[in-house]
Specification:
- With 187 residues, the chain is mainly β.
- It has two domains: 20-101, Immunoglobulins (Immunoglobulin-like, Sandwich); 108-185, Immunoglobulin-like (Sandwich).
- It has no helices and 17 strands.
- The chain has strands at 20-22, 27-28, 32-38, 43-49, 52-58, 64-71, 75-85, 97-101, 108-112, 117-120, 124-131, 136-139, 142-143, 145-146, 151-157, 161-170, 176-185.
- The strands form four sheets. The chain has a five-stranded mixed sheet with strand order 2-8-7-4-5, with no helix packed on it. Strands 10-17-16-12-13 form a five-stranded mixed sheet, with no helix packed on it.
- The protein is rod-shaped, with a radius of gyration of 28 Å.
- The protein starts with 19 loop residues before the first strand and ends with a strand.
Length: 187
């Protein structure tokens, strides 16, 4: 007796590639950001914000997509995306991008000079202070050395008479704190 073996034909459906996202910064002081990128034609991209589906966008003919206004929550935000084909087949998840939304300016404490106005008899003067860890500091547009604890210092040369010194602390999100001191150099 002959047995009949059924041969099943199967078609392998290849899922689309994960989208490539372009997020130009790690931190921002704006609650709204723009996310763009590239994915396969004739697909749509689903954006996830902090693990939750946020929005879907059709991919343009050139393979690009743009999410114009992503509303971040204060603190760290995690952004991922996946591509969905017309057959409703999803890609693997894209790599996770982290964007910190920080709207608070860094603190800035000037320890030398400790007053807003001082008189000195030395041509060289060291500006010292502290700010939040990770912030950058400039003193009259010159970059100060900032250590891991937020301590900074920079030696400046004074001119005879009144010297106005502007100290700016800027965090990764672009928030700034400015202070001015007056240092009078007398011979």
């Amino acid at each position: 007796m002959r047995s009949r073996v059924a041969v099943e034909e199967s078609v392998k459906v290849i899922p689309p590639s994960a989208p490539r996202m372009i997020i130009p910064y790690e931190a921002t002081n704006s609650a709204l950001i723009k996310v763009s990128g590239y994915a396969e034609n004739e697909t749509e991209v689903e954006l996830l914000l902090n693990g939750v589906s946020y929005e879907k966008e059709e991919v343009d003919e050139d393979g690009s997509f743009v999410f114009e206004e992503i509303n971040l929550v204060e603190g760290d935000n995690y952004i991922q995306a996946l591509t969905i084909s017309k057959d409703n087949i999803s890609s693997e998840m894209s790599p996770t991008f982290s964007v910190s939304y920080d709207k608070i300016a860094p603190y800035l404490n000037i320890t030398n000079p400790s007053e807003d106005s001082v008189e000195v008899e030395s041509l060289d003067y060291e500006i010292r202070g502290e700010t939040e860890s990770g912030a950058s500091v400039t003193v009259n547009n010159s970059i100060a050395v900032v250590d891991d604890m937020g301590q900074f210092k920079l030696k400046i040369q004074l001119i005879s008479g009144q010297n106005e010194v502007e100290i700016i602390s800027r965090d990764l999100a672009g928030n700034e704190t400015k202070k001015k001191v007056k240092i009078k150099y007398v011979l």
